[in-house]
Amino acid sequence: MNQKLQSLLNGVEEDVTILSLSAAFLYHELLNVNWLGFYCMKKDYLTLGPFQGLPACIKIPLGKGACGRVAQSKAPLIIPDVRLEANYIACHTETQSELVLPILVKHELFAVLDIDSLSLNRFNEQDQMHLMACCHTIATALQKNQMKS
Ligand code: SME
Question: pTM (2 decimals)?
């Protein structure tokens, strides 16, 4: 999956295009995912970026919900059962489990990748590892653009 993503992003020169292609690709590659998208870092909150799935929350304060927590910690987070999480933002009531990963460009948080599923316990450490590799590919493509501008 990561190799295909690398080929897809090769030579892409706009950040929004990198994120849009990645969202479409990963959403269609992964099984049992009802929403997948990026929340991009602004000064002190996250804003909805390119995604696949139903319309979702547009603004998430740092520290709030799974995405806001990952934006602060810069560490991946697996939520096996969203109903057991006090600090969780339910954009879609049907979502049962979630994986959120940081996208770091030059050690700074650029965005988080949020992946939701209708199944409980959909994501494990192996998913996290494979998808972190994909996030690294996305970050590398974004960083190349920053170096050009
Ligand atoms: N559940 C996320 C919010 C984004 S939606 O799932 C698309 C959270 O708690 O941060």
Answer: 0.96
